Amino acid sequence: MITTQPNKPSSIKTGSLVALFVLLGVGLQLIMPNAILPFAIVPDAIAQEVQPKAAGEKPKVKFSDDSFRRAALDGNMQIVKLALDSGSDPDAKDAQGHTAMHYAAFNGHTKVVEFLLGKGVDVNVVDGEGKTPLIHASSGPFNETVVFLLDHKAKIDHADATEGFTALMMAAAEGQLEVVETLLKRGADPTTVDVDGETAEIFAANNGHSKVVAMIQKFDVDQANSSWQADAKLVVSLSEKRSEFNYDESKVPAYTLPDPLVDSEGKPITKPEQWYETRRDEVVELFRENVFGRRPETDYSVSFETTSEVPDALGGIATGRSMKAIVKIDNRTYEFPFTVFVPNNSDAKAPAIVLINNRKFISLEDALGEEDPFWPVKEIVQSGCATASFFTSDVDPDDKDGYDKGIRAFFSDRQMPADDAWRSLSAWGWAASRVLDYVQTLDAVDASHVAVVGHSRGGKTALWAAVEDPRFAIAYSNNSGCGGAALSRRAYGETVGRITSAFPHWFVPRFGQFAGRESELPIDQHELIALVAPRGVYVTSSDEDLWADPKGEYESLKRAAPVFTLLGESSITEPTMPSLNGQRIVGKTGYHIREGGHGLTSQDWALFLNFAKPILMPSAE
C-alpha cells in the first residue's frame, strides 16, 4: 500500500523563452526556441564577439557559453562543433551549474552527448543541485539517451545533493515507462528514498502514473522471488550447434565436491591456524600439481624503467607512465611493458587495480585516446584508484608452441618445460605480481590495498595470482569459466577435455588427464576461490556466455563459504543466483550476472568498483 503524498515539483525548473542569435559564417540567423527551456538563459550573455577580417574573409566568431549550451539543448550539432572549434569550453557552467552535457541530455540529443563525451566531458558531471546528465535524461522520453549514458558508465543510483532525487525517481515522476523499465533492468534500486523518505514508486503514485507503479511493484516481486535461469531458446540453439557439449541443466552429472576443510589425512579443519599452518598449503600444492604448475625457484631480480610520462593525464587528474619491467638472471634479461596511471592531488594514498589484459597491449598513448571499456582508466582514477595494465602475450605468448619465446623460456633457458612446471596462466599471474612490485614503490599508492582483475583466461589468472601472492587484497574473475571460477565437475559448457586440448599451454598435462572423469580430480574450483579467503573475491558471469557456465561460477563462489566463515568473514551462501543485472555482495564476496555475451564491459567495471570500494578504501566508508 502506498501512502499518497502531495505532488512534488518536477526535478527541472523551467525558464523563460529567449531568442538566440547565432552567427553562421557572415550571415545572421535567428533561432527561436520551440519549447520551454529547462534552465534560465540570460539574454544579454548570448551575444557573440565578432572580429572583422580583411575583405573576402569570414569574420572570426566567438560563441558565448549560453549560445553553446542552447545549441546543445536544441541538438544543433553544427553549432556545437563550431562553438567548440571557436574556443568554447565544453565544461562551462551557467549560474545554476548546468553544462552543455546537461542540456543535451535533458532534450535527449544522444549524438551531442556522444560528441561531448568524446571531448572529455565527464558523463557524471553534476550541476548546482548535484544532478547528473542521466537524471536529466530520465525525466523525458529519451530511453536511447539513457541507455547510451548507462553504457558509458553513468552512475545509475546517483542522488542529487539537494533532494536526494535519482534517475529512477525522475522517470517515475514523469511517467516515463520505458525509461523506468530500462533503469530497473540495469540495476537501479527502487527502494532508494529521497530526503523525505519517498521512493520512485511513491513519486509515480503521486503523479497518477499507475502503469509505472505496477511495473515497480512487479519488479519488486520478481526480484524477491527470481533467480537467474539460462534462456531456454539459447540452450536449445547452443545444444544444436555444439552437440558434443552439455548446455542442459538437467544433464549435469551428480557430483560430490571435495571438502576444503578436511585435510589429506581426513581430519577436519576447525581452527584458522590449522588452515594457515597446514591445510592451505596442501590445497595450493594440489592446484600446482594438477592445474597450474609450479613456478621456478631460480634467483632473479627485477627493476623498472619509465619510458615516458604525462604528468597531467586525463584532464590533469592523473599521472600516466609507460613502464618497462626488466627481469634479470645472471647476465640475461627479459623485458615486458606495462602502463600505469596514478591519481594526482589525492588527500590520501590511493589503492590500486592491476588488470591482466588478455586482449591487447594498451599503451599510454592508447589510454589517453578514446577510452576502452575493457580498461576504463578515467573511471578507475575518478573512483580514487591508481591502475596498471599489461598484455599477457608480452609476458608469455598465448600460443601452445610458444614455450621457447616468453618468460617461461627465459627462466628455463629455452628448455622444454617439465610436466609440473608453470604454464602460461601461472606465468601471467607472476607478471601481475611484478607489476605489484612496482606499485609498491610509489609513494602515492597504498600497496596494501591492490586488486587484481582479469577476464576469461585473464580471470583464471587473476584468481591464481591472488592465491600465489597474498599481497592482492581482491581477486576479480570475469567470465573465467572452466579452469577459473566454474566447477569442473559440472561439465557444463566448456569442459576440462576441451580446454586442455585447445589451450594445452595454460595448464600442466595432468589436468587434461581428468577429461571425462572430472569427479576424480582431487580439487575443484571452489577451493581455488577459498584459497583467496579471507581477502576479497568478486565473480562475474554473462547470461549469453553459457560456455563459461554461470551457474557453475556462482556455485563455486558459494561453496567456498565455509573457509571464509572459518577465517571470520561472511560470504555469499544464498542457494539461488541473483536475478539478471542484479548484484549480490556479502562480506568480502560479490557476484553479478549481466545481460550480454563474453566480455569485460562498463557495467562490469561499475559494479566491481561498487564492490571494491569498502575493501580498497575502508577509511572512506
Automatic annotation (TrEMBL):
Gene3D superfamilies: alpha/beta hydrolase, Ankyrin repeat-containing domain. PROSITE patterns: ANK_REP_REGION (PS50297), ANK_REPEAT (PS50088). ANK repeats lie at residues 96-128, 163-195. One of its GO terms (molecular function) is carboxylic ester hydrolase activity. The chain crosses the membrane at residues 12-32. The keyword Cytoplasm does not apply. One of its GO terms (cellular component) is cytoplasm. SMART domains: ANK. Pfam families: Ank_2, Ank_4, GCE_fung. Residues 329-568 form the 4-O-methyl-glucuronoyl methylesterase-like domain. This is Ankyrin repeats (3 copies). Keywords: ANK repeat, Hydrolase, Membrane, Serine esterase, Signal, Transmembrane, Transmembrane helix.
